[in-house]
Amino acid sequence: MLSKLLSLLEEGRAWSLEDLASALGTGVPEVKARLEYLEHTGKLHQVRMAGGCDSDCKSCSSQCQCNDFKMPTMWEITK
After folding, report:
1. What CATH number is associated with residue 48?
2. How many domains are contained in the chain?
């Protein structure tokens, strides 16, 4: 499953957890666990989109709107 997941991610397109789960024939929790494993082993890293909040709004101003627009977690293959 890990090689298939990496193969899908190498395509360079954006995948939702649900789309990955469907393509792999498994559930979202399983995909999430595999992504976390691949990050832990250094094969993937998380990418935060510009304007997103990296610290759960702990360092944002009182006018932070991150809670109004949750940025999705994106993953990129480590080169």
Report:
1. 1.10.10.10
2. 1
* pLDDT tens by residue, 33-78: 999 999 999 999 887 655 555 555 554 555 555 555 566 677 788 8
The pTM for the full model equals 0.68
Q: Which of 53, 50, 54 is nearest to 68 (CA)?
A: 53
Domain residues for the domain of 15 are 2-77
Backbone dihedral angles phi then psi of residue 18, each to the nearest 5 degrees: -65, -40
Using the CB atoms, write b or e for 29-63: b if 16+ within 10 Å.
ebbeebbeebeeeebbeeeeeeeebeeeeeeeeee
Q: Quick one: tokens of 79? A: 């080169």
With a CB cutoff of 8 Å and minimum separation 6, the contacts of 4 are 24
